[in-house]
Design brief:
Length: 175
Amino acid sequence: MNIYQDHAYKHSIGWSTWHFQWVTKYRYKVFADSKLQKLCEIFLLEAARRYNFRIDELEVAPDHIHAIVELRLSMGPARAIGLMKGYASRMLFKTEEKKLKCFYWRESGNRQLWGDGKFIASVGHITLEKAKEYVANHETHHAKVFAVLLGNPRHLWLGRTSITYGRSPTYKKRR
């Protein structure tokens, strides 16, 4: 089984795995209440389901959130974290307004559950050293890829039936 097959999309192949962390506004320990903590987990998982990405790991601490998230290649990490924060905040204020009002007393529409900042770091399936080694030895890698192509003329990442690199035999240069 090829490891790339699980991460193939319509026009792309790859991983987009991220470590997210963000805090509550003023670092209030809002999620010391176990019911609010559980609701926050549910709403974050629901946001992932709604917006078509996956949360691999999730921890809701009393004053911050940690999440390991796999995104579609077409979605950026800042957008994903914004969707998660927005959906969870909106739903928590709708369902548990009385409990949250002791922390965030402003009128509806001006309340903020989360602080403005965020931490985003990429998480890869290979280490930085492996990536550097790949870049340094890319010619060797491409020779191996070409050898694979001879056995499989329609390889997963080519998207075409030709096994030749560059121009097709029928290509004519325009003048």
